[in-house]
Design a protein that fits this description.
Length: 277
Amino acid sequence: MPAEDLDINDPSHPTKKRALKWKRKSRVLMLCSRRVDYRSRHLMKNLIKFLPHSKTDSKFDRKKGLNELNETAEIKNCSKIMYFESHKLKDVFLYMSDIKLGYSAVFLLHNVCTMEELKLTGNCLKTSRAVLSFGTEFDGKPHLNLFKEMFVSVFSTPVGHPKSQPFIDHVFTFSLVDDKIWFRNYQILPENSGLAEVGPRMVLEPVKIFNGSFSGSVIYKNPLYRTPNTLRRFEKLQKQRKSHNRLVEQLATRTKKKKKAALLNFDADADFIFEDE
């Protein structure tokens, strides 16, 4: 049968086959550093389920230097990188890099919640493609535009990927609240019933943007960012100051009580009789 006699909505139509061909062959390398906490490790596994165009590798040794990640991505035939790095078993930083675009960014992770912890009502297909939703704030400032382009390049599954399913049933949302980027994953309910959260959750605090993949000069630095060590030191000083003020108040109260007791004892012992001569 000639191609012009076929229905355009028929999946067997030649134009449909050409449209579903995997043209944008981009892959994301996802890995973590050694001694990363269990919550970040499970978060990475949750994201791998929703990103069929991702590849994994063994845990990375920080002593080798971040430039080694570019060589690992080249060996794995990946053009994007998501790297979770743990510091002091307390803080986890997320590095995102797009080798083709030529820049990378660093985020500090907050409020990480995995799908196993949340037990939400939403549900979606494992390897289906997602719709990416961004708040209007991402179109206002240059560094937010860079973040938006990076999220689109990393989280969007290419059309026709052999490991992906040709369905769109969930939404990745990125919103800016308190100068931090909030990530949520929602299921698209049928018959316009709204959305149901699937998970996982995470909050990204921007730190820096580099003019290169894990190298180059700093083109943006968050002026509101404070290192976790600085915040912990400040909290420690605040606790010491409160405890010092509490001790001063206790000493002052004890001194007042002692003075009052001394005055009462003095009045009780004093027996002065004044008589007119």
